[in-house]
Amino acid sequence: MTSPARVSLADVTPPIALGPLDGRYRSAVAPLVDHLSEAALNRERVHVEVEWLIHLASQHVVPGAPDLSAAERQYLRDVVASFGPDEVAELAEIERTTVHDVKAVEYFLKRRLADAPAVLGPDTVLPSVGELVHFACTSEDINNLSYALMVRGAVREVWAPAAAALVDEVAAMARESAATPMLALTHGQPATPTTLGKELAVLAHRLRRQLRRIDGDEFLGKLNGATGTYGAHVVAVPGADWPEVSRTFVEHLGLTWNPLTTQIESHDWQAELYADMARFNRVLHNLATDVWSYISRGVFIQTPVAGATGSSTMPHKVNPIRFENAEANLEMSCALLDTLAATLVTSRLQRDLTDSTTQRNIGPAFGHSLLAIDNVRRGLRALSVDAGLLARELDQNWEVLGEPVQSAMRAAAVAGVTGMQNPYERLKDLTRGRRLTAEDMRGFIAGLGLPDDVADRLAALEPGSYTGLAEQLVGYLDA
């Protein structure tokens, strides 16, 4: 049987996205396009070239270079501010000839210098400073600074605010349920009770710590020529203090200057940042799996979305898809971040080009993490706590009081009370492999011969009140 010819989806206009981040999940990750797309890379390249030109002129680094007026500096910076779809297309057209992306940026900017008289008048000096564009630079001088600016913007303006908002929401849930007692499960078995809020606070605290690490990460940059020696700089202008010119320029961009590099900035700062982000992802993955387990156990009830389908065949189901989606996207993000961190720290001798392709995948690494953050936030907002189930679970597990009873017996033995020998073993015989009732536990306590105040304290204890300092510990989120 011959199948009919199919429409070629590769030729459809507008183009169909190959990956889910630019297709199905576009709305959740779109803010990253301003920072980590190919167009954003070219805009930052233009930005760095513009600022380098202004820096050279304003610092009088190159003899004979004219001063730029405020209007001329603004004209140059407006080239960056107005960089949009027309400029993206123009750069692509230039690159088809140059077959070199950074050289295309240089020619693009020189066109703008040539066009300046039409905006600023015939007396502008901008057409005469074309050779200051890309002066003494290798492509990596422009690229490393552009990537540092891009990644910094993506972290500070998009990813970190979303991550911090998520952590704040988890912390708020922790405070709301700080006093809600819950049976703990260690190794999947009933264990010393806690509170739901304290367990959520642990996760919020872990996530917040990783955000503090990320907030302290540095964004490094360099501008020192083809092999990091300022060779062309010194030959062209031997009288300049080129390391100082480089340092002040990099710091003018808001980056940390790296004084010792090969042709490339070593990317160690990127590896450090991506490792920290991956660790945040993994803690968030732990949150997603714990919440999924709580949903499965019935601790959390999911609010159905009107009109939504939980299962194609089982109409009763409300699937925890937000948390499952988050798990998968966090795993994808970590895989990319781990690869970036592992590969970017190595470059053969003074330069190879593996980092060029690798760094173009920073966007997907951030995108999958941002999508997971969005899914977890949306999932958490659809949850409510079944306090009744928590109370029933606790009341069915009186054996968890074996721990405080044997601990009280130990303390009494140290205080000289007789008959307190072998407390652990006696409680093990009472509780292991058995379900106890309140009467079973209280009868055992009554027969121990404990001092009255201790016996009364233990007799008043219930699984739901045996939560130690769990409620107060949530307060450490605000410390």
From TrEMBL:
PROSITE patterns given in the database record = FUMARATE_LYASES
Q: Which residues form the Fumarate lyase N-terminal domain?
A: 23-326
> Source organism's superkingdom?
Bacteria
Lyase keyword on record = yes
EC assignment: the record states 4.3.2.2
MF terms from GO for this chain are: lyase activity
Protein name in UniProt: Adenylosuccinate lyase
- Native species: Cellulomonas chengniuliangii
Q: Give the lineage.
A: Bacteria, Bacillati, Actinomycetota, Actinomycetes, Micrococcales
